[in-house]
Amino acid sequence: MTSRLRIAVQKSGRLADRSLELISGAGLRVMKGANELLYRIENQPIDLLRVRDDDIPTFVADGVAELGIVGYNVLAEHFPEDDLEERIVMRLGFGKCTLKIAVPDTATYEGPQSLEGKRIATSYPNILGKWLKDKGVTATIVEMRGAVEVAPRMKIAHAICDLVSTGATLEANGMKAVDLVLASEAVLIKAPHAPPADLEHVYDMLLRRFDGVTASTG
Ligand code: ATP
Ligand code: ZN
User: Fold this and answer.
1) Residue 14 CA, ligand 1 centroid: distance in Å
2) DSSP 3-state assignment of 1?
3) CATH of 97-184, one of 3.30.70.270, 3.40.190.10, 1.10.3720.10, 3.40.50.2300
4) Nearest CA, atom 17, ligand 1
5) What is the 3-state secondary structure (H, E, C) of 34-65?
6) Which residues contact 185 (CB under 8 A, 6 or more apart)?
């Protein structure tokens, strides 16, 4: 069996369709086979590894996949800041969202210092922890896997740090966004080691094509 390159992509969710669009835009013909975990590319020695987005940074860092498509927010939660740029091949221009501090509509917020001594619920404890440290604020981070927006109403926390695109979810929960923690978009990431020598030309071709597609779609 000849070896094949692997690209880790989100199986289903907000990045799944756009990731597949990028891949077909690069001329790869995706075979949606019986194997839900692995899609084969018909016309290139490439497979798509379809996983939860949270697993993508580690899979790519471990070399289980040579490339991966993941939100910058997920990458930044997994690795320290000074380690991020060398993992990123290119920014992909989709999946844009922001990680924001939000507080109940009735609360006053006069900057990060308003969070001093407070409890903040988030699924991004590392990113939030670093932001608070940079701002010189000491607060308690309450880690939640989901439904972060209900934390203030449930008296679990005073504020939240959560992904926002339209703000509709915040509004529906009686909250307002008051500060920006991180701006994010989907990024293409690469394994720390070079691809196998016999696949180097496929790898280089792929990066050129992704670059072309990303440049033309902005
Ligand atoms: P998975 O099942 O793969 O773990 P998930 O529920 O963690 O999925 P999604 O909600 O599908 O993740 O979001 C995937 C990524 O899409 C986010 O990490 C983020 O980079 C991006 N994204 C874009 N807009 C939004 C938004 N409004 N809310 C949340 N994420 C968004
Ligand atoms: Zn996830």
Assistant:
1) 5
2) coil
3) 3.40.190.10
4) 71
5) CCCCEEEECCCCEEEEEECHHHHHHHHHCCCC
6) 71, 72, 91, 92, 93, 94, 95, 96, 97
Q: Is ligand 1 within 6 A of the CB of residue 52?
A: yes
What fold, for 5-95+185-217?
D-Maltodextrin-Binding Protein; domain 2 (3.40.190)
Residue 25 near residue 65 (C-beta atoms within 8 A): no
Does the ipTM exceed 0.90?
yes
H/E element, 90? strand 88-91
Q: Tokens representing 54?
A: 């949270």
> What integer best gives the mean pLDDT of the chain?
96
- For ligand 1, whether the C-beta of 73 sits within 6 Å is yes
pTM of the complete model: 0.95
